[in-house]
Amino acid sequence: MSDNTQKTGKGKRGGKRSTSWKPGQSGNPAGGPKRGGSLKEILDYYDQLSPEEIAALLPPGELKNAYLQMPKGVAMKHLKVLRINAAIMFDPSPGLVNLIHERTDGKVPDELNNRTTLTIDGLNDVLKKVYGRTRSKR
After folding, report:
1. pTM
2. What string of pLDDT tens digits covers the 138 residues of the chain?
3. Angle CA 39–42–46, to nearest 5
């Protein structure tokens, strides 16, 4: 028998070892990995800063000057929202408008589940003028 089997009365598997965790002891005493490396975390960090705070981090140049021309004391996340709203208002593209509405209001269903009959006063008269006949009843 091996020394381990003689001391514990058990085989190599399932017995207590000096490296086994004690009850209530963490398996990772140093904690989880440090945060801040993901793209989302980096964007969230800079969204909280104002343009002048970001400009202070940049070397002299065109990008720094662009940040210095932005409104002072406003968080970048608010400036982004204002810029997106301006794009929707002054240069609307169907893709951008659709994307914003899906993100804020939810996706529009592809088809409507409406099985009711819509009646409009005078519709038959208009159809008769346009097509020379009225809409047939089902």
Report:
1. 0.47
2. 555 555 555 556 666 666 677 777 777 777 766 665 789 889 999 999 999 999 999 999 999 999 999 999 999 999 999 988 888 888 878 888 888 888 888 887 777 666 777 677 778 788 888 887 655 655
3. 140
Q: How far apart are CA 125 and CA 117, in angstroms?
A: 18
CB 88 within 8 A of CB 76: no
Residue 89's identity, in one-letter code, is: M
Beta-carbon contacts of 47 under 8 Å, excluding residues fewer than 6 positions away, are 75, 76, 77, 80
Q: Find the helix or strand (DSSP H, E) in which 13 lies.
A: none
Cβ–Cβ < 8 Å for 48, 73: no
Distance between CA atoms of 118 and 122, rounded to whole angstroms?
A: 12
Output the CA torsion sign for 3, 7, 11, 17.
Answer: negative
For residue 57, give both structure tokens: 């981090």
Extract the tokens encoding 68: 């210095």
